[in-house]
Amino acid sequence: MTTTVTTKPTTKAGRTADYLDERLGVAGVVKEFGRKIFPDHWSFMLGEVALYSFVALLISGTFLTLFFQASMVETTYDGSYIPLKGIHMSAAYASTLDLSFDIRGGLLMRQLHHWSALMFVAAATLHMARIFFTGAFRKPRELNWIVGVLLWVLGMGAGFTGYSLPDDLLSGNGLRIIDGLMKGLPLIGTWLSFLFFGNEFPGTDLINRLYMLHIMLIPALIILLIAVHLLMVVLHKHTHYPNPGARETNVVGYPVLPVYAAKAGGFFFIVYGLLTVIAATFTINPIWNYGPYDPSPVSAGTQPDWYIGWADGALRLIPPHWESVIFGFTFSWNIMAPVVLLGGFIAVLVAYPFIEKWITGDDRNHNVLDRPRNAPTRTAIGAAGIAFYATMWAAASSDVMSVFFHWNVFLVTHVLQASLILGPIIAFIITRRVAFALQRKDRDLVLHGVETGHVIRYPHGEFQELHRPLDEYERWRLVSFDENVPVPVRPRSDGKIYNKDRRRSWFSRFFFESRVKPVTPEELAAAQHEHH
Length: 532
Fold this sequence. Notes:
Radius of gyration: 29 Å
Oligomer: single chain
Order of helices and strands: HHEHEEHHHHHHEHHEEHHHHEEHHH
Distance between the termini: 71 Å
Helix content: 55-70%
């Protein structure tokens, strides 16, 4: 018979850890999670910036919640800001003015909240772009890509609902656009507007409803999706760039504990500190300059926050008077078309991993990322999408560009309308050709090395520049990618070829028929022999 002797921890931290482990069984979880490997690359910080910006949003938002009054009850302002003293306004606008001028630290927290919201959406947008261009959405991460798109959309929704809460003239104009969008929908538009606003615009219940969306429903969904997103990252391992030792079956990097956790903790304070410095030195959304909302005036040059500008720009680019009357109902296509356009753009983002998987027939797990130049068609599609988005975003400032550059506003609109169609096509063609050119450059570097600038003359009179061969690590990075080839049309088991097989083959040729072949081992051996 043997007796097991258990040694109790002697330190306070050890005793606390032992207490928690005996009751919650956290030791195994911490041990497993602490050994998770995370690669070390600057582009992976974009997702961390988005996460830390959201934490800053929660901290500053909690402070603002203590003082903001989500009410449209009319009151008379009697605060410190003299120009608005005695003006009738809603309690929401008055409390926002109090936060800005009478509550210690209120203006700093307001601006920290606003800048953090902008940073959250910006970092999420760049993070998604990195995932798209490197192919990180491929199996087994398709669902995580969908979670990311939903987080991006919820971030814009959270920003818009928060931006509208102060009930100032600028945010009221944005809500008026939403009211017009709703009323432009056939059959249900008017009823939907009444349901949302609680009455004829602007109603009396809107701020309270937006407040509930902004502080409860949308943040809860964002927190839930962030938890799901991080859980999937842990389950699927992390992706890594093609480098020596990087394979589809491993992850090269540092463990969470203690290296990555220490770096992430320090990076959080850097992000939070920079946001605080920006909030303390750069004014944003000075609502006291706009005044309380009044449905009658509309300020010239009003602009939404950048992340919602593409929706406003889509409305501006649709031709006016584009309507039809069918069975006595008016169908405003100039309102419905932007809604379909924006919804279609988001739907394509959600579906793209599955579209590419169907075209390529690739059902393998991928942990090694693609260099964008090695997936030229996907990279070109991404550039076309950015051009499409950027054109709508720029259109939200068409009137400002017209005034600032002294251009005709109709000319600006017509140029942007043409750019919405031609811009993505031009971006696609140029990006694809540049990617092919970069592939050929890599191929030339692998086979011939780097130009040294030293020229020698042989005894028979020939001049030749010396080239330095690449080291094996750099060569690995340039040659370690798969060659994708078009999927041929083949009869199925019943001997038939279906139309969807032909469509898939056509798209596959579109993706991969024009390609630069990777360097083969035979070519590399011949090049090395030539160097020797």
